[in-house]
Design goal:
By secondary structure, this protein is mostly helical. It is built from 23 helices and six strands. A six-stranded parallel β-sheet has the order 3-2-1-4-5-6, sandwiched between helices. Helix 16 links the parallel strand 2 (275-279) and strand 3. It is extended, with a radius of gyration of 33 Å. Residues 12-18 and 235-239 have low confidence and may be disordered.
Length: 468
């Protein structure tokens, strides 16, 4: 909208022919007012009128009509932008803003998704085709200065913005390196500036080349930040921090007090069992201490730290760390140096589970198993099955599923045998569960599900009471 005010010569001189727009021949200030009004009109119409249109389309229950309407809106807004002298790319950008305001934005996003990759690819192909590589070859110093200048100026500005908004140095550097390069919308702006007489082709072409090259440097900038910069800013405290002096000994030690281990610790504490909490993430340790948890920083795979935590006197070690490799190290060292210690471990994948099962521990638990079974139980309850049947089914499924995994652990290194045995085991469990359901259906009066019984019979008693 502001570009026409910056024009230093007629647009006709740029491309050699007139651009037929509804603002052609009008004073520059009036062109600017018209452009601003059109943009505001599009945004306001999208906010207050578009939902009514899409509700009507939704009532037809024709999904194809959604796609057609969305594409029609994009094309319509683009044509309107072109009529007032703006870039077609700016029109598609505004159309995206409008569609994003709709309450049907998720459906629209799904419908337009197949076009996304294709059109983005065409856009960047067009950008690449528009770059004058002869210009880069003939003027390497100029292009290099432009690229370095663009990255340096943006980097400094972004670093200052990060500090103003309270970012720590490591996050501020990541933020600045991520966005220091030019963006694809620069191509749109330079093209529009050229069309409106703000700059000539000789001026815009080197800048467009510099932006494209700076974008290509993004992976290199991220690598420089990760390998050369970050080790000296923000991460040194975490790697160099000494393990805490542990001043308590309890019969239970929990290694890993994150989102998983903290639930275990709180449950034990609620039942009067005190535990010693160890965690290797210093930020997590500091945060949990603010919540009142007495968590000690340190690597539980170190034998000296386990000894300081009282492993030689403790009864139980609960390993709930996120890293499977670290978890295996903790188990191995604990069994070797503290053989009396009973161990319960958390695993994340089937491979981790198989490895821990072979260690012959007191308990091996899959991370998401219980949560997934609880959600499945809730799904059956929502669908109307009796709670009594659901609980019996859940216990039976868990029992046979764990038995299957223990059996699969024996052949975990034989991939073909493992897959075949797993398929048979899954089918056997399903058949067993369905057979149990069929038998249970013939005994509807069994069980302790009083809530379902009330829902089924209270209305009949109430009806008889009203009739009396």
């Amino acid at each position: 909208a502001v570009f026409p005010l910056l024009a230093v010569f007629d647009a006709v001189e740029v491309d050699g022919h007139g651009s037929h727009t509804i603002t052609e021949g009008l004073p520059i200030w009036l062109q600017t007012v018209i452009i601003i009004c059109v943009i505001l009109g599009i945004i306001l119409s999208g906010r207050y009128l578009l939902n009514y249109l899409f509700r009507f389309i939704a009532s037809t229950k024709l999904r194809e009509l959604f796609t057609a309407a969305a594409l029609l809106l994009v094309i319509g807004v683009t044509v309107l932008m072109t009529l007032v002298g703006l870039s077609p790319a700016l029109g598609t950008f505004l159309a995206g803003v409008v569609l994003a305001q709709s309450e049907y934005r998720h459906e629209l996003e799904t419908d337009i998704e197949p076009f996304k990759g294709l059109l983005l690819g065409l856009f960047f192909i067009a950008v690449g085709a528009s770059i004058d590589f002869n210009l880069i070859i003939n003027n390497p110093k100029t292009i290099a200065y432009l690229v370095l200048g663009l990255i340096a100026v943006k980097f400094i500005i972004l670093l200052i913005i990060g500090r103003v908004f309270g970012m720590k140095m490591d996050n501020g550097l990541l933020f600045s390196f991520s966005l220091a390069q030019g963006g694809e919308f620069a191509f749109v702006l330079f093209s529009f500036a050229q069309q409106n007489g703000v700059m000539t082709t000789e001026t815009s072409n080197p800048i467009i080349a510099a932006v494209a090259i700076s974008m290509a440097f993004t992976p290199l900038l991220m690598l420089v930040n990760e390998k050369l910069i970050q080790p000296y800013f923000g991460t040194q405290e975490s790697t160099d921090r000494e393990a805490d002096a542990i001043s308590e000994n309890n019969e239970v030690i929990i290694a890993g007090f994150g989102r998983y281990g903290s639930v275990i610790g709180r449950f034990l504490q609620a039942n009067g069992v005190q535990a010693t909490y160890l965690d290797i993430d210093p930020n997590n340790v500091d945060l949990l201490r603010k919540y009142g948890f007495r968590v000690f920083y340190g690597d539980a795979s170190r034998v000296d730290l386990l000894h300081a935590a009282g492993a030689h006197e403790a009864k139980l070690l609960i390993v709930s760390v996120d890293d499977p490799v670290k978890s295996a190290d903790i188990v191995s060292n604990s069994k070797k140096h503290f053989p009396h210690l009973k161990i319960i471990v958390r695993t994340k994948t089937w491979a981790d589970y198989y490895a821990m099962v072979e260690e012959d521990l007191e308990g091996v638990y899959r991370e998401f198993s219980d949560g997934a079974l609880r959600m499945g139980s809730n799904a059956l309850q929502v669908l109307g099955l009796r709670k009594y049947h659901i609980q019996r089914s859940l216990k039976k499924f868990r029992k046979h599923d764990e038995a299957l995994l223990a059996d699969l652990a024996k052949t975990r290194n034989e991939q073909k045998t493992l897959i075949n045995r797993a398929r048979r085991g899954i089918e056997e469990i399903e058949a067993m569960m369905l057979d149990d359901m069929a038998n249970d259906a013939t005994n509807q009066d069994q069980g302790w599900d009083t809530e379902t019984i009330k829902k089924e019979f209270v209305p009949f008693f109430k009806k008889d009471s009203e009739e009396d």
